[in-house]
Amino acid sequence: MQLSVFVLVLFCLCLSVYGNNKHDGSIKHDDPMLNTETPNYKEYCVIGAGPGGLQIAYFLENAGRDYIVFEKGYGAGTFYLKYPIHRLLISINKRNTGKTNKEFNFRHDWNSLVSHDESLQMTKYSKDFFPPADVLVQYLNDYATKLNLKVQYNSTMHDILKRKDGLFQMWDQHNNAYTCKYVIMATGIATPNKPEFPGSELVDGYEDLPIDLDEYEGQSVLIIGRGNAGHETAQH
User: Fold this and answer.
1) Helix axis angle, 133-146 relative to 51-62, nearest 10°?
2) With the C-alpha atoms ordered 224, 210, 130, 74, is the resulting torsion angle positive or negative?
3) How far apart are the C-alpha atoms of 83 and 137, rounded to whole Å?
4) SS (H, E, C) 131-176
5) How far apart are CA 173 and CA 186, in angstroms?
6) Which of 4, 61, 65, 108 could anchor a disulfide with 94, C-beta 3.0 to 4.6 Å?
7) Cα(171)–Cα(151) distance, rounded to whole angstroms?
8) Structural domain boundaries of the chain?
9) 156 Cβ neighbours under 8 A, 6+ residues apart
10) What pLDDT, on a 0 to 100 scale, did the predictor assign at position 191?
11) Is the separation of the CB atoms in 69 and 49 below 8 Å?
């Protein structure tokens, strides 16, 4: 379990931010005022309220740290309102392992986050081996609510910069400034991987695929890529 948590934390720290620079430029990044004011200061700023962001928030909450989670959506796990597009997770939900060891059983539950609340387990939310994505959305929102995690929704952060005094500063879509000592990125992979090749402009991306099977009747279909999305699409 310790190794799994370490990998999750490392994954969150290594993710990148995607999006355009939206700051209006009225505040210069080298302005000395940025070294004297600390608007809306938090020691830890976590960006993204998906599984990674919420898991980090849980540990920060239990450690009594000063933190906030920024989420651009109106709730936790909004990524899973669209993906996977065929609406079944590919992470297993094995409710019966034949064992009584909790650690062993938890290793066969690929969806639940770590917490002290045993009611917050996906095995209690769905009996399906591959649960519906909508169930995971409900689970993540319950996780954030029941554990009193400090999540600020409808907050799109941009222009993250490191000031001369070593603090980070950023702004939301309303140009409200926030300052923090540490930034943890948990935004996930937000842009599709679109390889370029002759004719690639004619290809439909996974993110735009219709799920109505009538759309494919009598058609020859070529799937480029044999990762999870490719296999999910082929099975559908």
Assistant:
1) 20
2) positive
3) 11
4) CEHHHHHHHHHHHHHHCCCCEECCCCCEEEEECCCCCEEEECCCCC
5) 18
6) 108
7) 16
8) 2-185, 200-235
9) 19, 22, 72, 172, 173
10) 80
11) yes
Instruction: Give yes or no for residue 54 having a pLDDT over 90.
Output: yes
Q: Which residues of 94-124 are buried (b: 16+ CB within 10 A; e: fewer)?
A: ebeeeeeeeeebbeebebbbebeeeebbbbe
Average pLDDT value over all residues in the chain: 87
Whether the CB-CB separation of 139 and 55 falls below 8 Å is answered with: no
Closest CA to 130 of 85, 164, 95, 158: 95
Give start and end residues of each alpha helix (H) in 20-125: 51-62, 102-106
**159 φψ region: left (φ > 0), alpha (ψ -120 to 50), beta (else):** left
Q: Which pTM does this prediction carry?
A: 0.82
Token duo for residue 226? 């044999």
**3-class secondary structure per residue, 167-197:** CEEEECCCCCEEEEEEEEECCCCCCCCCCCC
Residue 146: per-residue pLDDT: 98
* 54 touches 68 (CB < 8 A): no
The pLDDT score that the predictor gives to residue 29 is 54
- pLDDT at 141 (0 to 100): 98
Q: Is 82 exposed, middle or buried (0-12, 13-18, 19+ CB in 10 A)?
A: exposed
The answer for residues whose C-beta is within 8 angstroms of residue 31's C-beta and 6 or more apart is none
- What H or E segment, with its residue span, contains residue 44? strand 41-47
